[in-house]
Amino acid sequence: MALEEIRHRDGFLRLIRGQGSGIVRCLTCINGFLWDEDPKFYERLKEEAADVDVTASRLPEREKENFRRDAWGCLWHYPGRYLDGQAVEHPLDDWGKLKDFRVPSPDDYTQWAEAGKGIQEAKRNGTLAGGGVEHGFLYLKMTYLRGFQNFMIDLAERRDELYQLRDMIADYWVAVVKNWVELGVDIIRFGDDLGHQNALPMSPATWREFLKPAFRRIFEVCRGNNVEVFLHTDGYIVDVIADLIEIGVTILNPQDLVNGLDNLKRLAWGKVCIDLDVDRQKITVFGRPEEIDAHIENCIRTLGSPGGGLMLRYGAYPGTPRENAAQVVRSMQKHHRLWTSTHPSEKRHL
Hints:
By secondary structure, the chain is α/β, with parallel strands linked by helices. It has helices spanning 2-7, 9-16, 32-35, 39-48, 112-125, 139-146, 148-157, 160-183, 204-210, 212-223, 241-246, 256-259, 261-267, 283-286, 289-303, 322-335, 338-341, and strands at residues 25-31, 53-57, 66-69, 75-78, 86-89, 130-135, 187-191, 228-232, 251-253, 273-277, 310-316. It is 45% helix and 16% strand.
C-alpha cells in the first residue's frame, strides 16, 4: 500500500528526492472539535481511504479557551476548539526591556534524553527520525516579542536592537538544531508564516537583507550534516521561493491558491520536494464535490512526477462542512497514484 511504503524511511526519502514510484503522499488532519461531532463518520472515512493518512488534531492545551505564557515570556490567548492562539502580551514591547531579556536555554527546549531514545527507536524500526522547532521560530518570533506594529516600524527604521534580537533568536535555534543533528535525525521540521494573503509583509529586498542570513545560518547546520530541511510557511511567498531553496530548504510546504500552482511549478518543481498545503479558504469550504475533486487532481497533475517529489496535506477546521472534508480525502485516495499509471516517463532527481 502507498501509505505503508512511504512511512518507511527509505521510501520517504526516495519520494522527496524525486527517486520514488510517483506516489503522492497525502495527509489530512481533522480539527478535534469537528471530529468529535461525529467520530464514526471519520473512522469510516479512514477505512474508505486506506492510502490517505487521516488523523485528528487535539492539543490538550487548546481544547478550552485559556491564557498561557510561553518560555519566551509572551502571553498567549487560545480561543478553544483546538485552535491556535495569538500573542497578546509582548515582553519586548519597549526596547528598554532588552537589556534584561534572556533567551531560554536550548537545553530546555525539549527532553533531549527522551528525544534521543525516540530517534534510536525510529532507526531500529526503519522509520524516519525527525526533530523540529516551534512554529513561528524566527520572523514571527520577533513579532510575538515586539508586537507586529512595533516590529514593522523597527524594520523600516533599521533599528540596531532588532538586528540584535534577530541574532539572539538565530543563535538559540542554531543550538537547538545542533542538538537534533547530534542525535542523528534525518529531517528537521521548521515553521514560520512568511507571507500575508497577497504579498510579503516587507519588500523582497528587505527580506533578503534582514531575514535570509539568519535562515541560512540555521538551515546550513542541517544541510552540512545531510539532514533534510522541511519548511512550512503560510501566505504568499512567490518572491522568495528561489531564496528559500538556495539557503537549504529541501521540502517546502506552501499554500496552493495563495501562491498559484503555476508559480510553484515554475519556481519549485524539480528543485525541491513540494509538500502542498491544500486550500482551506475557498474551494474546500464552499465548493461542490466535483470542484474539490478537480482541484485535487489539478494539484497532482501540475506538481507531480513519475519520480515523486510531491506530497499533499489538508487541514479541516470548524466551519468546513464535513462532506467537503471527506471529499478532499476521497479525491486524494482517487488521484494519489495518477503518476504511477498514466505518465511512464523518465524519473527526475532533485
